[in-house]
Automatic annotation (TrEMBL):
The keyword Signal does not apply. SUPFAM superfamilies: TPR-like. It comes from Limosilactobacillus mucosae (Lactobacillus mucosae). Keywords: Repeat, TPR repeat. The keyword tRNA processing does not apply. This is TPR repeat-containing protein ypiA. InterPro entries: CellSynth/LPSAsmb/PSIAsmb (IPR051012), TPR-like_helical_dom_sf (IPR011990), TPR_rpt (IPR019734).
Length: 419
């Protein structure tokens, strides 16, 4: 055995003291090709200091070998020594066989610093120099995937598959392509690739995206099967539960949907949107008290979420909980929240509580936004009737029947008032 082989064997055996001894002999005695292979394997094992020593030894012997500089730059980046990495990379000229690899390493460096425009520029240089190089295609795809520009990532993954590469850097390219298609809204293409992902790469993320894509395509039965299987294997994958609940909702399996979202709350109990979804499922099964409980919890988790607040307010009105509704909404009005639905809901509750001055104030505030809304006009007509404002009531009834002439009951009421 060579000293390098003995070193690697000692590492495998967990005998690091012996490994260090054999490594020292390898630096002195093994030939350069064997030492280069040792450096690569040490890097792959995460033994950066030893890999760096081996590459530096080789660079002493081969100062014109730029591949060694790119390797040393990669190690420097891994260690957070970006200035050192740049020093190696700037020594590599554009006519060097290692220049494309140097551009890829430089792109990686700038990406770690969050300089995405420079990263993209380096990658484009590499692509211009080697447009068919798999490593370049993969790097371009991965960059656009990382920054969420999925439409731009797709052509590079597709080109990579056309080179015959189904896997690169331990990444399944069909999975990446499927995920990128899905994220860019091309669901049919996405599902085709997601179904091609090898079993070893069927991660929870891939399986979730498959289920979500089936849901988007209206393949609800398949989505339920995919997401149910995912939860069986990974019951902590919180995002699967609301997706499964929505699939059940689409097939009108409301009890099953409610159960799914309740199980999800056991995994993620601080997600206000999950509570809101649970409330919706509770409404489907007619359990409005449970719906109220979930909306209250959703509101408490995110009191600034106006959509949830208004949904909670609408339910409180439906349940006749007008004191609770006023307590919920009045502070928002004082804080200058401008959504006119707040004014409308407060007006309804103040009317129910017989606080007519306040009710009229909020009806008037809501009127500019809802003057063409027949449901609002019905509430307003009811208010004017209850407060004895007959002329205003008739005006709004006339307005109402112009907007909704099919409501014969309101027309009859108007006729009675007029004659």
């Amino acid at each position: 055995m060579t000293f390098s082989e003995k070193c690697l064997q000692a590492i495998e055996d967990g005998n690091m003291e012996e490994a260090q001894k054999e490594f020292a002999w390898a630096l002195r005695k093994d030939d350069d090709e064997i030492l280069f292979n040792l450096a690569e394997q040490l890097y792959a094992l995460g033994l950066m200091p030893q890999a760096r020593r081996a590459y530096l030894k080789l660079l002493e012997r081969y100062p014109d070998e730029d591949e060694l500089r790119t390797a040393l730059a990669e190690i420097a980046i891994d260690n957070g020594h970006n200035d050192e990495a740049l020093a190696y990379l700037t020594q590599i000229a554009p006519d060097s066989p290692a220049y494309v690899q140097a551009l890829l390493v430089a792109a990686d460096l700038y990406q770690t610093e969050g300089q995405f425009e420079v990263t993209e520029a380096k990658l484009k240089q590499a692509y211009q120099a080697a447009p068919e190089e798999p490593a370049v295609l993969f790097a371009m795809g991965e960059f656009y995937y990382l920054v969420g520009q999925f439409d731009k990532a797709v052509p590079f993954y597709f080109a990579l598959i056309q080179t015959g590469a189904v896997e690169f850097a331990k990444v399944d390219i069909a999975a990446r392509l499927g995920m990128a298609y899905a994220q860019s809204g091309h669901y049919e293409q996405a599902l085709g690739y997601l179904k091609q992902v090898a079993p070893a790469y069927q991660t929870s993320d891939v399986r979730f995206q498959t289920g979500l894509t089936q849901l988007e395509l209206g393949e609800f039965k398949d989505a339920i099967e995919t997401l149910t299987d995912l939860i069986k294997d990974d019951d902590q994958y919180a995002s699967a539960y609301p997706a499964l609940a929505r699939a059940y909702e689409q097939t009108q399996q409301y009890e099953a949907g409610l159960k799914a979202v309740q199980e999800g709350l056991g995994v993620d109990q601080y997600n206000e949107n999950l509570f809101a979804l649970a409330a919706r499922m509770a409404s489907h099964v007619g359990d409005f008290k449970l719906m109220q409980k979930y909306l209250q919890q959703a509101h408490e988790l995110d009191p600034d979420n106006l959509t949830i607040t208004l949904e909670y307010s609408n339910l409180l009105i439906k349940l006749g909980e007008h004191q609770v509704n006023v307590k919920l909404l009045a502070p928002l009005v004082k804080a200058d929240e401008v959504d006119p639905q707040l004014d409308w809901n407060l007006a309804v509750s103040y009317q129910a509580l017989e606080k007519y001055d306040l009710a009229e104030r909020f009806y008037q505030a809501a009127m500019p936004s809802y003057n063409e809304n027949v449901d609002f006009l019905k509430n307003l007509i009811s208010f004017y009737q209850e407060t004895g404002q007959r002329d205003l009531m008739i005006d709004e009834m006339e307005h109402y029947v112009r907007l909704n002439p099919a409501d014969t009951e309101m027309q009859e009421r108007l006729d009675q008032e007029m004659f």
